[in-house]
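Reader question, answered in our methods column.
A reader sent in the components of a multi-part assembly and asked whether the whole thing could be modeled at once rather than chain by chain. We filled in our standard form and ran it. Here is what they sent:
COMPLEX SIZE: two components
ENTRIES:
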Amino acid sequence: MTLSAPVTSGDAQGMTIVARTQGQLVRRRFFQHKAAMTGLVVLLAVVVLAFTSVGFGPFGGWWKHGWTTTGRVIDGGAPTLTLWPFSIGEHPFGQDNVGKDYFALVMRGTQQSLLVALLVGLVATSVGTFVGAAAGYFRRRTETALMRLTDVMITIPVLLIAAIVGRMAGGSGILVLGLALGLVIWPQLARLVRGEVLSLREREFIEAARAIGTRPRRIIFKHILPNTLGIIIVSTTLTIASAILVESAISFLGFGVQPPDISLGQLISFYQGAMLTRPWLFWWPGILIITVALSINFIGDGLRDAFDPRQNRVRA
Amino acid sequence: MIAFITRRLMISVFVLLAATIIMYVMTALSGDPLADLRQQTGPNREDQMRVRSERMNLDVPIPIRYLQWLGALITGDLGVNRDGQDVGVILGNALAATLQLVVAATVLAMLIGITVGILSALRQYSGFDYSVTFAAFVAFSLPLFWLAVMLKQYVAIGFNTWLRDPVIDTTVIVVVAIAAGLLWGALTAGSTQARLISFTLGALVTATFLSFLSSTRWFADPGLGTVVIGLIAVASAVGICALFAGLQYRGPLYAALAAAGLGTALHTVLGGVLTDPTWPQLLGLLVLTVGVCVALGYGLGGLLRRQAITTAILTGLVTAGLIFLDALLSAFQAYSQRMRGRPIATIGSNTPNFRGDFWQLTLDSATHIMLPTMALILISMATYSRYSRASMLEVMNQDYVRTARAKGLPERTVIVKHAFRNGMIPITTLMAFDFAGVIGGAVVTESVFGWKGMGQMFRDGLEMVDPAPVMAFFVVTGGAIVVFNMIADIIYAYLDPRIRLS
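And here is the structure of the entire assembly that came back:
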């Protein structure tokens, strides 16, 4: 697909070899990955739309309706968005039964879902990396204790434990919820990092570092973790994608984001009864969840290919 | 081996025990079990609170409550829920529905997913491969509950409405035929001409088939009939032989064809037995089928006895499945009429107070389980197809596969014997992992389709901060996951000789 060997420039002199660092190679491969680039553009568009349209925090947005203001229900609240001829109309995504603008609601939900997912990804990555690196490097008791803990956590299906921590933290706002979810869905990453660290710690450069008396902390942070950066970044991306789905699932079950906070799953759950009379209340949040999760998954796939070109042979 | 299993079992028990501690404590801490009573204003509020605190042992610290629960569990007592009902009884009712759903979804997802994955690996970088890859990504990104509601709304209700006048639109026929043609074309290897031919053939056959079904209003009163059963049985006998033994050998082919013929002949004879059978009877028939097929394979197999027995058994099972399906479909019209023409159900795991013969009852469960299973399998199917594709590709690039090809083995042998077996080893680990996901998914699907299954039990229990039902759910599912994990480990060790059992 992409060239992993140094590329020859189109110089008139012929074969001039351009030296590239590891980072440059990865970046090049990533930017040449079409699916990942499409995903990135779509994701950025959604993020910009969600955060600028209805505003965030102290910043106001450009959209004329707020997500809490009710209004007169026009035409049964049907969406006014038409693609051909393109026109946005007054309420592009329609209105709910009390006349709230659904575009504003969905954008607010997207913001909060994205924030929760990002937080979950960051927390889960930090905890997972820490546990995996410690278990892999120190071996013996530390490893046994940490990996048994991981085994135990993996036995519990993600959705169950997420629902339970959601029940605990849901009422305290989305930040607490994201933190709590992140604290329970790290085990997969911990296993991954441990496996990688186990193979790295036997390599010569680590032995050399140990031989000159480098402290464990420095070895882990300076020598081992930078080499596992690839799988960590990839797995963070994929965790964020699945976090969006987990958050929306538990919000749908009623254990996630609680009003007055809005998330995409909670919108679907809230308007589930309106499926027959106002199907669009159901369509839009779902479409946004799919769009966001799909583009993040594609970015993750592109990152995986970029960090691990050997796998190109095996997986597209 | 026994030492390995024992050791593995011990570890599993401890892991599960530790997991129950986490689950119990977190559930107990997840909220206020008296919240609904606190908001009441009635005069007996204090009384109700006292009764509930006593029943749930709320005045005892959580660790001790856990130990009490654990002690009761060892004697087989799952405790009582908030309202004093015995959780064991509730679980007994809920278990069957959920297990049906989870097992059906897992098995189907594995079968279809692995097949699709292998096909897309064998046709890497083809249109089929790219479509499967894209579809898998979409499936990974689908919120399950959203998909379930969509299926309920559009598939179930739409299909029921369509069934009043089961005539397929010409446009639909054309579109489906073109899609089928594209699929066949993409799956065909070789020149553009070969691809074009299989595209045309695939499209034409599909179009004729659909028009036939539509014009005979097959969907209103479906069924297969002896002729169709015979044709499909023979076709699958040939297909199974081509896959497992190679068509150039006579023995296995004759055995498989004999199994197909015998099965079809029995279909006409067996009518009486199959009017209102019971599950044990059917199981007996199944065992009988396998026995007869083994005999057929043994007798007709010649030198290739082992392959002959395999092909005969598989063909026999397919034929038996066809006969079962035929009987089930024949009951469809009567069932549909009893359901006032809306046979695909959207709520519950069976029609309340429904009585009928064996086929109608089975059909009743089948129509209820169909949509939740569809929603559930779509996502795990994607996982299976991705993993089996990657694993198959990795194996196909190994040196020993090149060697097998170089020494002139036919492609069938290379793929089925050398690549497939080794490629499936990593899938065993996935099986255990995916099972946990399906259980989580079952909670969501049950909630959408209003099943009174274990997922409902979990959800209600968690809502009421009532550990007993939540823990009952977890003991069953967590136990199943641990057992699945163990089986996966054992199979893995058995399949891969590089792994030492110590």
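What stands out: Residues 312-316 of chain A have pLDDT under 50 and may be disordered. The radius of gyration of chain A is 23 Å.
Send us your own complexes using the same form.
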